[in-house]
Amino acid sequence: MIRSPHRSRRVLVTAAVGAVVALGAAGCVSSGGSSSSASGGNAWATATSAQAGGGTDALVAAAKAEGTLNVIALPPDWANYGNIIKGFSDKYGIKVDSANPDGSSQDEINAVKQLGTQDRAPDVLDLGQSFALGNVDLYAPYKVATFDSIPAANKDANGAWVNDYGGYISIGCNSTLVPVCPTSFADLAKPEYAGKVALNGDPTQAASAFASVWAGALANGGSLDDITPGVTFWGSVAKSGNLLKVDPNSATIQSGQTPIVLDWDYLNVAETEKNKASFDWKVAVPTDGLFAQYYAQAINKNAPHPAAARLWQEFLYSDEGQNLWLAGKARPIRLEAMTAGGTADKALLAALPPVSGEARFPTQAQTDAANKVVAQNWATATS
Hints:
With 383 residues, the protein is of the alpha+beta class. It contains 15 helices and nine strands.
């Protein structure tokens, strides 16, 4: 289903892309493996690259000796994480303990702080961008072998955090119930879509809905410095009767209760696959308000399995790992470089809604300011 259970994870953690953009295209915490808190004496705990630690073969051997990797807040059906975890475990023979798969970015940060050097602390983190930027002191800098092929804007210069995968705000539409599907924000205001348009959650709480408000701003004269036109736009959509006060998920999509859904393109495209036997769920990235989000990887500086943590990063940013995210309909951070180099899976790439242009990202200050505007004005604007 569309990941409504993970809204807490997605709250106010967005990185935006405005105007014309390109996106290079976890239960209780479980017990860890054999490294224990002794990772502080493990040379891999401070290695800033595989080469610095003795080379890739040495890294693989050390990670296999540790035998375990602790991950957290990775839903198996989100962006293909179930297959990514399986692929890593099968390839290296390393057990992956996945804690709190329905957790939030804040849950991840809390676990790092509360568990300290315990064996069950997370080794690695997958975070919303604002959480990644706001907790750099918790991470171990590390540069994967493919570090240079990752755009400078999408990584810490020392590798403390690196964007991993993302997607665009898109419009999903049941073409059986909606004869002419909308492809732009301007379309969403048309009378023919009365009672048909749904946001994935409350934008004061859910990042995908918040992103839809910012995309609406970009489509209506706003900017990364001014999200107010987006609040105004969605207020008018609500007052016209077009905006549904229904939280969409796979069940509401299948029943026809939410025939038009604003959500990340990799989630909307997944709905296309799920429902192709019943109806055509069309997906369009709006041409007049492009907005995208990347998540970010980081290594816990107190990782109980420091070699496995670094090997996990190497796997994720390899062509193999990046194509696994692509198989989940997400856009891996190295997609542009892989497309140029011919290593991106062409069939998987063809399944993505087309987008082209140059990426722009807001500062943390812009994101914080936009969050405040939405929190203060959304309820009144849409009532």
